[in-house]
Specification:
The protein has helices spanning 12-15, 24-30, 41-51, 53-59, 73-82, 96-108, 146-155, 170-182, 199-210; strands at 63-67, 88-93, 113-117, 132-137, 183-194, 212-222, 225-234. The chain is α/β, with parallel strands linked by helices and 235 residues long. The protein is globular.
């Protein structure tokens, strides 16, 4: 088992402002008591990457992109399992505090993470067209009303990491429209989703719009929620 990246440099104050696996207790306390925030999503994504490690190494990725990097844990883990490489690890987040923590996590774990504070991948779309070999996205997937999701994204704070709007898909839907422009011919896209997000519809949509294959890399029950990691690739 490959160890989880070292996040000991993150302060308690950092964990109140960013999304990271060690900070879920803080996140749960700060959210509505009626909202169930899973604690397993980050770890399930790490397990999926570890499970596919031989495929990922054989792919020899040059550009990796994580959307909503939070603490930088997932990209640091990816860098650690790929080992010494010339790959570029780009990490976007709307939260400036998250970008700073992502950079620090890369430095702590000796993985050169390059954070970009922006909305999803918008400023990168033109330059990275069909160039990204690995895309990682643990989106805000918790179903909320539209107004709550809108204000969470607009405030660029920690609520933006979990408030997903109607069906938990409002932010995810915006990014799915860009995946076809970003993913390279041999690329892979890993997406975290809840059963309530309608996974069959997501897969059908990506097949119809971008002719992408999909598979469930891993799935796990987390409290009342059923989490899945969907891996997409071009046909």
């Amino acid at each position: 088992m490959i160890p989880t990246p070292d996040l000991s440099h993150l302060s308690n104050d950092d964990k109140l402002h960013i999304y990271d696996p060690a900070g879920q207790l803080h996140l749960t306390i700060r959210c509505r008591s009626t909202t169930d925030i899973p604690t397993e999503d980050t770890f399930l994504l790490l397990d999926s990457l570890e499970k596919d490690v031989q495929q990922l190494k054989a792919q020899r990725p040059l550009i990796c992109l994580e959307i909503g990097s939070g603490s930088g844990c997932v990209s640091a883990f990816l860098g650690s399992i790929l080992g010494p490489t010339n790959a570029l690890y780009l990490c976007t987040d709307i939260n400036q505090r998250a970008s700073a923590c992502t950079f620090a996590t890369g430095k702590k774990n000796k993985v050169p993470l390059d954070p970009v504070t922006c909305d999803l991948s918008k400023p990168l779309l033109t330059r990275l067209r069909h160039c990204v070999d690995i895309i990682l996205f643990n989106p805000p997937y918790v179903p909320t009303d539209h107004e709550e999701s809108f204000h969470a994204q607009d405030s660029t704070g920690i609520a933006g990491s979990w408030a997903g709007g109607l069906d938990g898909m409002e932010v995810t839907n915006r990014f799915l429209d860009d995946v076809g422009d970003l993913l390279s011919d041999c690329g892979k896209f890993y997406l975290v989703a809840l059963a309530q997000n309608n996974i069959p519809e997501i897969c059908q949509r990506m097949r119809k719009k971008f002719n992408m294959n999909s598979r469930i890399a891993l799935q796990r029950q987390a409290g009342r929620e059923h989490l899945s990691i969907i891996c997409f690739s071009r046909s």
